[in-house]
Each structure stands twice: as structure tokens, then as C-alpha cells.
Amino acid sequence: MSTDNELKELVKQKYSEIALQDKETNASSCCGSGGCSIEVYNIMSDDYTNLEGYNADADLGLGCGLPTKFAKIKKGDVVIDLGSGAGNDAFIARSETGETGKVIGIDFTPAMIEKARVNAEKLAFHNVEFRQGDIEHMPVTANVADVIVSNCVLNLVPNKDGVFREIFRVLKPGGHFSISDVVLVNDLPEALRCAAEMYAGCVSGAIPKDEYLRLIEANGFKALQLQKQKPITIPDDILKNYLDDAAITAFKSGSTGIFSVTVYAEKPAEAAACCAPGCCD
Predict the structure, then answer these.
(1) Residue 271: in which H helix or E strand, if any?
(2) How far apart are CA 57 and CA 155, in angstroms?
(3) Higher pLDDT, residue 81 or 63
């Protein structure tokens, strides 16, 4: 069993490679974890191209939803994008918050931070910045963000409870998040869950949907909404890397489902200034 630190290093290594790949390679793979499918279609990602603020150079085809579309961002807001990659969601958020707001992207991978900063310089966006850091320990002070967005990132983090605790800490009282992520209905086969490529590709790091929603509520958030849900199908040529024919048939005919969800929740306006319930004890 890999430790949390080993899994984080795996993600850092894979996403350093992904930063150098083109969108077509990433979009036809498992969240960019290599050209693992010969079928040419996007396994998870949604189409960003019609959203205001879209920048092709910042779109690596790594998302599994459109959280900024649902995030209710207002002019002047401070927005934080978790796992900001090359800057795609941050730049779309900037089109919503305008020049009077601020957008902070946080990413674990130095190569992604560098790519995002180059893109921001090209666009002359002086109110968008990118900080390298672990989203379990965000390089941001408490109660600073009006809105937090994230796209297909929390599934890559072993300690999801810790991330939701940090989101609560960093949001202003009354602030909210909109997060797109991968969740499960029932458990993945063990061979898929243990596969390193599938972990870096978003799927085997996912947890059951009910558990995901429970973690959000357990960390003090209110007004929880499921803004969007869509099924994700893993092509046979990927499944064959991990399962035999009988196991593939059982997996596809069973009750296990893999879904992309976009989830919204709010930090209560009366929330204590420090953090989520229990963490100040």
C-alpha cells in the first residue's frame, strides 16, 4: 500500500509530464495520465470553448466538469482555484470577477505553475497569480476567499477530509465553493484502485459519492447542492490493462458507477473565524 506522500509524489511526477503534453493527448487519456486509450474522445472533460475568458493555451483537457460555470462568481470577488494547472479555470474565473477582483491559483506541480504564469503574462492579467503549494495546507491566510473552484483535483488527494477542512478555513464566512470531481457508486475493483496510472488519471483516487458528500457536511458546510452529474465510461482498451475479460464483463454489468459531479456548498455566514468544527480544539 502506497503512503500518502508516495501518492503525492506520483501525482507530481505525472502532472509534470502532462504539463509538456498537448491537449489532444491529455483529452484522449485518463485525465492526462498518458495516451492510454486508442479511442479518440474525451473520457471526462467538458467543452470550455464557449465560456468567456477561455484561453486555448491554458486548456490541457484535464477537467471533468465546468465548475466556474456554476460558481456564482461576482465582480470584485476573490476566487481561489485549487489545482489550477495551466490556468484555464483561473482565467475563466477572472472574466467573472473582473479587474476589481483577484484570482489565486494553487498547484502542487512546479511545471504547471510555470506554464500558468507564462500564460498570465501573455494575457497581461495582473490580478491573477499562481502559488505552488499543497491544497491540504494552502499558502493562503484564513477567511480570504469569496469563492473556491476546483476541477478534477480532489480525487488525486489522499486526504480529502483535510482539503475540505482547508477550504472551510480559507473561505470567508458566507463564502462558497463549486467543485467538479470524480466519485463512485460502489467500490472500484481492487485491480483498478491499486493501479498507479489510474490513480494519477483521477479514477482510482475517487471515493464513494455518499462519503464525499458526508465529508463536506462534516466539515461545517451548509446549503449543499449537486449542481451536475454525468456518468464516465472507461473504454475497454484501458480496462484490459488491469482486468481480465471475465472481470471486465462483471464490472460493466454490475452496479458500480463512475461519475463526474459538480458540488456546491457554503460556509455559514456566522461561522467562527478560525476553521471547521473540531480543528481548533
Answers:
(1) none
(2) 24
(3) 81
Distance of alpha carbon 278 from alpha carbon 265, whole angstroms: 19
- Can you read off the three cell numbers belonging to residue 109? 506541480
Enter the C-alpha cell of residue 12. 507530481
User: Helices (DSSP H) in 124-208: which residue ranges?
Assistant: 160-170, 190-193, 196-200
| pLDDT given for residue 152 in this prediction | 87
Cα 252 to Cα 256: distance, rounded to the nearest angstrom: 8
Say what the pTM is: 0.80
Range list of H helices, 171-280: 190-193, 196-200, 209-218, 236-239, 245-253
Band (pLDDT 50/70/90 cuts) for residue 65 is confident
pLDDT single digits (tens) 105-130: 999 989 999 999 999 999 999 999 99
C-alpha–C-alpha distance, residues 26 and 226, integer Å:
27
Beta strands in the chain (DSSP E): 78-82, 102-107, 128-132, 145-151, 171-185, 207-208, 222-231, 257-266
Q: What share of the chain is helix, strand, coil (3-state, %, to 5)?
A: 35, 20, 45
At which residue does the C-alpha cell 455518499 appear? 210
- In angstroms, the first-to-last Cα distance of the chain is 31
Cβ–Cβ under 8 Å, residues 60 and 171: no
Spatial separation of the C-alpha atoms in residues 49 and 69, rounded to whole Å: 12
DSSP state letters, 118-143 = HHHHHHT-TTEEEEE-BTTB-SS-TT
